[in-house]
Amino acid sequence: MKTKTNCKFLTVSLLASAISLSLGLSAVRADDDVEGGGIEGSESLDMDAAMTPTAAAPAGSSIQVSLEAEDDNGTNSATLKLETQGLLAGIYSVSVALKSDGSTVAIGSFTVDNEGEAEIEFGGGEGAPFPVNFNPFDIATISVADANGVVRFTASLTHVSTAASMNRFATVHAIPGPNDLNAAGTAVLNAFLSHKQAKGSIQLSGHGLPPNTQLMVSVNGLIANVKKVNTDKAGNVRLKIGPKGKTGTVASGLTLFQVTSLQLTDKFGNLLLSSDF
Fold it and tell me: DSSP state, 157?
């Protein structure tokens, strides 16, 4: 009979650079290149996947993982759940690699009974707490290792083809650049999986920009597939960027699940409006 195990929290420290944020709407904010990192708005991420077994995983074993995360103006909350079957009895550890700097963060440990089954929960109201200042939107991969440190299962949150389902939605304020403090707007990101590909769009509605001006569009600092957009005579702009081609990317090598920022610049490269997701 399957029972819910007690999680043993492992205290860790995160790099200070991963959590240094600036929240002022009127101030110029640097792009932190981290999803859910100090955003001005709200964002949610839901993922469900069968973790990928390594060569060290017992034959017929499996782990199902799910993540539900929310960000409300830079305040993160999340629940990470794992359900195992067919593992050898013993103690296992859960860790994640971060998108922001590639470092590894220990999340906690759990014990598998003689039946090889366990249900583990981190975060939420009942699970063991996450490490202090942990950002669930910064997870690149999740790994489960045995007591000897041998990785038995992994799951990627950036290679979406491995997930059974994944949904991401964000609505954030657009922040003016230093040369156009009157600029403002709203950006909306909607991403979901369909036939193992990232679908959806990024949309931006901006105003207070130079009128009748051609602007450059970039995503994560990379020129997007929609390279240019023009403001109208009142200084307003609307744009929509969706995945292109068989790769389903919105900029070079980037899917909607990897987008952390959207920028508008003038022809001289001056930042006029930006949104962090």
Answer: S
Q: Where are the domains of the chain?
A: 8-12+37-157, 165-276
Q: Report pLDDT digits (tens) over 1-58.
A: 334 444 443 333 322 333 232 323 333 333 345 555 557 899 999 999 999 999 999 9
Q: Please give the structure tokens belonging to residue 71.
A: 């960000």
Q: CA 163 to CA 50: how far, in whole Å?
A: 7
CATH class of 8-12+37-157: mainly beta
> Are 119 and 6 within 8 A, CB to CB?
no
How far apart CA 105 and CA 94 sit, in angstroms, is 9
Answer yes or no: are the C-beta atoms of 172 and 277 closer than 8 Å.
Answer: yes
| 8 Å CB contact between 111 and 90 | yes
Buried b / exposed e along 67-89 (16+ C-beta atoms within 10 A): bbbbbeebebebbbbbbbebbee
Q: How many whole angstroms separate alpha carbon 210 and alpha carbon 92?
A: 57
Residue type, 141: T
Q: Is-contact 193 165, C-beta < 8 A?
A: yes
What is the separation, in whole angstroms, between the first and last Cα of the chain? 42
Rg (CA), the chain: 21
- C-alpha triplet 100, 257, 83: angle, nearest 5°: 85
What's residue 222's pLDDT? 86
The token pair that represents 218 in the structure block: 């970039």
